[in-house]
Amino acid sequence: MHPFQCVLRARRCLRRGPLASVSWLLLRTCRAHSSVPSFACPSPQRQQEDGVWKDFSSRLATGPTFQDFLRSASVPPEQPSSSEVEDPPPYLTVDELLGRQRRVYLETYGCQMNVNDTEIAWSILQKSGYLRTSNLQEADVILLVTCSIREKAEQTIWNRLHQLKSLKSKRLRSRVPLRIGILGCMAERLKEEILNREKMVDILAGPDAYRDLPRLLAVAESGQQAANVLLSLDETYADVMPVQTSPSATSAFVSIMRGCDNMCSYCIVPFTRGRERSRPVASILEEVRKLSEQGLKEVTLLGQNVNSFRDNSEVQFNNAVSTNLSRGFSTNYKAKQGGLRFAHLLDQVSRIDPEMRIRFTSPHPKDFPDEVLQLIRERDNICKQIHLPAQSGSSRVLEAMRRGYSREAYVELIHHIRESIPGVSLSSDFIAGFCGETEEDHLQTVSLLREVQYNIGFLFAYSMRQKTRAYHRLKDDIPEEVKLRRLEELITVFREEATKANKSFVGCTQLVLVEGPSKRSAADLCGRNDGNLKVIFADVEMEDATDSGLRVRAQPGDYVLVKEMWQSLNSANPGSMGGVSLR
């Protein structure tokens, strides 16, 4: 092998491992080729004269080969979780992978998936000997779990890094160096741009690389920046039991799948979280059972496209009967066959604990077969609330977005859902000012808001993201001031219509799961009803439903019947209700 080929191999490995490991590989590769001149690989005679070669050659003989580096660069298969670190990479010892009680401070930005990712990351670090802290000043490691869905979300992180810069520079020399890491979608999207722009960042870990956090932090301890932003086709963290970040929590998120195959033209998710893959049903059921045993009263099944769940983990599942798409809907990918579908999972989860509420988010409208709707109607503990992202009320814009449906098909699905599940609460997402959106397109979205009357809404101005289909094929031609004006108009109409829709709860008695004290007043408690509307009521003694002679005060995790519901006077939040507790 030519000496320059040796160097080339070493450079390739440099992207995957520390410099010391690369130089070791370079020497081992050169040693195998006698044609390499002495300036590239010192002769054995010279080393023997120094009295060093004998010991060094024995170390090389037992050291890593080129294949070891290839294996360490690939995404490792899921393994049973263990409190002990097994099979460390050749350039680190087991002791170096341990946290040695260093304190970790975690900040979460963005969606519910990031909340769940934070719990997964902490579970992995906790088993490696790290401690958790809620005090930023005492942290030895600061990890930001980030979002890239819009430019504003990323700017928030840049601003936060600027704030943390002074904290790192003022670190006392008597303490261990402060390490700062970027986790999640922003790390995946920007990669080396973060490391180049902010030298203070020590590690990057994409959504599929949290298992690698102990190694990344160990490498950072040597003063190098470390990154793993490899996306996986099979990583689901099925064997990692997330650690609840709030000990007083009454609810939990359970991730059932990761990634997305829909490839909507505006969306960055397939590029930051990868392709769709689902957890085995058995691992999901085990996690929900444990949460029930811990006393939690509500779980939300999570996924970027949660109702396209498909468990193909066992061969016999491939013979499962396929379910149909919603009528009038299509996909951007080839039809998939077999596997246990979302209806099966929802059925099994709802049977674990009849007193545990079940929610799920975020679904795609295309994946609502009658089997799912029937389950929601029949099971008392599956919440009668469905998130149905529309994004636009214009069929022309929906086609440009590659949503796979028209306005007419979407409205027909709305009617079918309301017929199938009487009293269902609906929420949705909308984007204002997408590429090429005309004033007429905007008015069609306004009319859809009026026609459907959603109970809850999430509305945003369009933010173009690199790598998306829209970035490559469409033009972001709507001025920012027009986007913001249209967004304000959508918000105004949504609030008006949501106020009307939520009037149906006025005067009714609702079963509310208590979450804790109200942020408005220490004299009040707050919780959520079946439709996911916030309900605020007085913190007073009430009759215990299990003992009519006992008077008690409601605690977080209790179910309370709230009567004489009325709407909040806060027009900015039409999804907030008031009431009087019954028991």
Automatic annotation (TrEMBL):
GO cellular component labels: cytosol; mitochondrion
Cross-referenced InterPro entries: Elp3/MiaA/NifB-like_rSAM, Methylthiotransferase, Methylthiotransferase_CS, Methylthiotransferase_N, Methylthiotransferase_N_sf, MiaB_methiolase, rSAM, rSAM_horseshoe
Domain (MTTase N-terminal): residue spans on this chain: 102-222
Keyword Iron listed: yes
Keyword Ribosomal protein: no
GO biological process, one term: regulation of protein metabolic process
Database matches in PANTHER family: CDK5 REGULATORY SUBUNIT-ASSOCIATED PROTEIN 1, MITOCHONDRIAL TRNA METHYLTHIOTRANSFERASE CDK5RAP1
Protein's UniProt name: Mitochondrial tRNA methylthiotransferase CDK5RAP1
Biological classification of the source: Eukaryota, Metazoa, Chordata, Craniata, Vertebrata
Gene from which this protein is expressed: CDK5RAP1
